[in-house]
Structures are given as C-alpha cells and as structure tokens.
Amino acid sequence: MTDDEAASAPVGEAARVPVVIVGAGPVGATAALLLARRGIRSVVLERHRDVYPLPRAVATDDEVRRILQAAGVGAEFAAISRPSNGLRLLDARHRVMTEFRRSAHGPHGYPQTSMFDQPELERVLRDALTRRPECELRGGVEVTGIGPDTSGPVRVTYRDGDGEHELWAEAVLGCDGANSLTREAVGAVWEDLRFEEDWTVIDVRTTADVRCWEGVDQVCDPDRPATFMRVGEDRYRWEFRQREGAEQPVRDLVAPWLPSSYQGDFEVVRETQYTFRARIADRWCNGRVFLLGDAAHLTPPFIGQGLCAGLRDAYNLTWKLARVLQHGSPERLLDTYESERKPHARHVIRLAVAMGWAMTGGQDGAAALRRSLLAAACRIPGLPRLAGRDISTPLTAGPFVRRTARRGLAGTHCPQPWVRVDGRRIRLDEALGDSFAVLTATEPDPWSAALAHGLGVPVIPVTGLGDDGTLAAWLHAGRADAVLLRPDRIVLDVVPAGARDFTATADWAALLHTTRRPDPSELPVPKSLLRSTTR
Fold this sequence. Notes:
This protein is an alpha+beta fold.
C-alpha cells in the first residue's frame, strides 16, 4: 500500500498500525528506528516536510551515542560529530577558574561529550527511516486529535493537503515537543522546577581564528553570563543572558572571542531568544499514549542534556513496548517507563538548574554568595575531576532493577568495550544484539544456566569476549560474579560475589511473558559467544 492509499483508507484494517509516533525530530525518529530493529512497524507524523534547517541541540554524551548505535546510525553520527574537551568556567575577564575535563573514551565506548549540528543529525535519522520498511514518515501533516485509550486501539486524526485522515494504533508516542498536543491528550500538566531565564542564542559560521579550546566555555559574569562552544569546523554558538535595555549588536557581543579588528567572513546563521525553563510533566502516560522528550520534560541547557534525556526515553520505552506488542508481556511492564525515567529526568534537570545558578550567579540577592562559593569550590583538589564524571545516576529500584546493598551494579549501565568475535573486532552491543544477556566472571554455574533457560537468553563468560579486561574489572569492582543485562544494557540484577543465584527469576519470567526457550539460532548473538544453558 502506498503512503497516499494508507492515508486515505477508511477506518478498518488498512488504517491500523502498531505504533503512531507524533513528531519526527531526533527523539521520534530514533524511537521509530529502535522499534524497527525489533520488527515493530510505525507511522511517524511530522508537520515539517523536510528537516527543520536551523540549529538547536549541539551536544550529546557517550551514553546517547550508544543509543544512536543501537538505532543503526552510529557510524553516520560519528561522521558528523566532533569530540569536546569538556567545560571551562571563566570569570568576567575570561580567565580560567577551573576545567571539567571529559574523556575521549567514555565507558559507553565513545567520547564523553560530542558536538554536532542538529539538522545534520535529523538528516541522518530521516535517511535511516527510508531504509527501514517498518518505518513510514508522513511529513507536512498536522495532528488534530489523539483519542483516549479505552483498552483498545488509540484513534489519531490528522490533516494534510488532501483533507482529514485517521489512524488506529496499538500505542502512540508523543515526541511533539514543549507545546505537545499529546501531553493534552494524556491529561498531563507541567510541574515547575523553579528556573526561568531569558537568553539570546547566536549561531555563527566563520573561518576566523576564533579563540576556543574545543570545549564549552561558561563565562561566570554577573553582568552578562555567557556560554560559548565550537560546534563544527566553521560553526560556533554563543548564548548570552538577556538584560534590561537595548541589546548589543552581535559583533560586539562576540568580539572577545574574535581576532582584534577582524573584518572577514562572519555569517549569523541564527539569532533568537529563548526562555530557559525547568519543568517536568506530572504524568507521562495514559494507557498506551506516552510522552517522550520535551513533551515530558524541559531542562536548561547548562549541562547539554536536553536532547540526551529524550533519547534515553526512547531507548527505555521501545524495548518494553516491543515485549508487550510482540510477546504478550503484561501491561504493567509499560508502567516501568515512567517509574524509571521520571526520577532520572528530574535528577538531570535539577543538576542543570544547580549548574545554571552556580555558573550564572542568578539575579537575586544571593547571587554574589553563590559566585563566591563557586570560586572557593573550584580550588578544592580533585573536585573538577569528580564533577566531570558521568552524570547518569543508577535507576531507582523496581521490577526491572533489583537494587540491594549487595547488588551495587543493579540499575547501572554495563560498559561497552571492543570485543573480538569470530575473528572480528566489534563493540559489545553488536555482539549481544537486542536480547537480554547474562555476563559471568567465570564459566556459567548451574544457577546462571537455570536463569538463562527460563528467560531464553545466552550466558556469556567475559573471559571469552577478548576485550581489554574492562568487563572483568567492572564485575570485580562491583563485587559481582554475574549480571543480568536488559536490552538497553542496564543491569537488571546481580549475583554478588560468593552468592548462589539471582533473585526472583520467576517474577521476571512472568513479567516478560517468557514461556519457552528459543533455539540458539534465534538469538542475535554469534554462536561462538553462546554457552550451554543445560547441565
């Protein structure tokens, strides 16, 4: 069926789709690709016919690059991004107060911070959508309604140049931004996390010898806080907090970074005003209608986590939705999306707010005190190094995170080193595929084998992966003999060193609706990694 035929089909089988995604930005497109990897068809509805051409998000971290790898665009993103050294805090005279270094080799297998141009990322994602028969993008449409989920398909109505249309979906993913129609359908309202400032954002293309250190500069100036970063080969971004009175011309604002008396090429790609806000929706779903990305949370940009949070949403939800749609897992599996992601998003927003108040000083009576405390903190030995670590905290305890005092790795990410499989050097996730997996420090014991038998997953001794010792060291540091990894590579449970087995295996099997053990040929893992799960 062609796109036009499907769009104009009457209500019935032809108009039914497993998933409708509202919004084809990075979050919506990534969600569609992740679902496609699991064989789930989706229709993506987007108001723009082509990629929105102006830059917006410019930074991502190594965890999110791992998500893009899972979506099948890891190599393409590498070609359009550049690593960043981290963050520097400068005083009003642009003298360095401290540096928060980011490694070029993070635990997820990529630079801890990468800079990119969002339109380029969106083109990469849209190209990938065209290569997946499970994905259908309908651009130039306006979604007009999302019907309530009454234990049946969800009705989505939209209009285009040919008139009104409707689709019936098993699930709807609202990736439609801060002014989300889906959020209204869910019945969610914003919770204000108490940060709101007006800033001017300027994107520039120039071949000038701009003063930069291949990282982000935050100018802690009480009169004019500013942020500066190099985005691409000839692309730069400045952000300035607005102040009362007439604004300075762009060239005057950015003059401290340019050669004196520079008169060469200088193209202002975009100059716009933003209100940076901190908000989170009070609910993220209603039945099978879900909120993702800016539809669910808004964060100030001070730690570069706005887009990252949305892609984490997509990764967390899509594998669970696939289990429900394909394997008949209970609906309560989908409840863990909000219970896992919402506390994590709130933590990241609060961290961004704290960094924003510390770096900019704010505009209230305590601003001078905050700046003094920041200057003192920057002189504490080792603090910048600690602050530069991965900001992603472990997920809270729940059905798919068995956190206890002895299971310290539960809720954290498994690192992703390079491994050697069948003579090929590949990344760990490429070896594991999209399934659950058990990693063991030694050869599998009977209890790990029993778990694998119940869940139908491979048991993989890390000693046979041919990595650089990263995984064995990680298990040893976490005092773990084995871990059970979820498809998103978060540790579900741990066998502590010297313990007998995992906990509550039967509960997981019921939640996952695992009733049979697949043949090894069905598992997306090279046979050389598989170990027998029978004794």
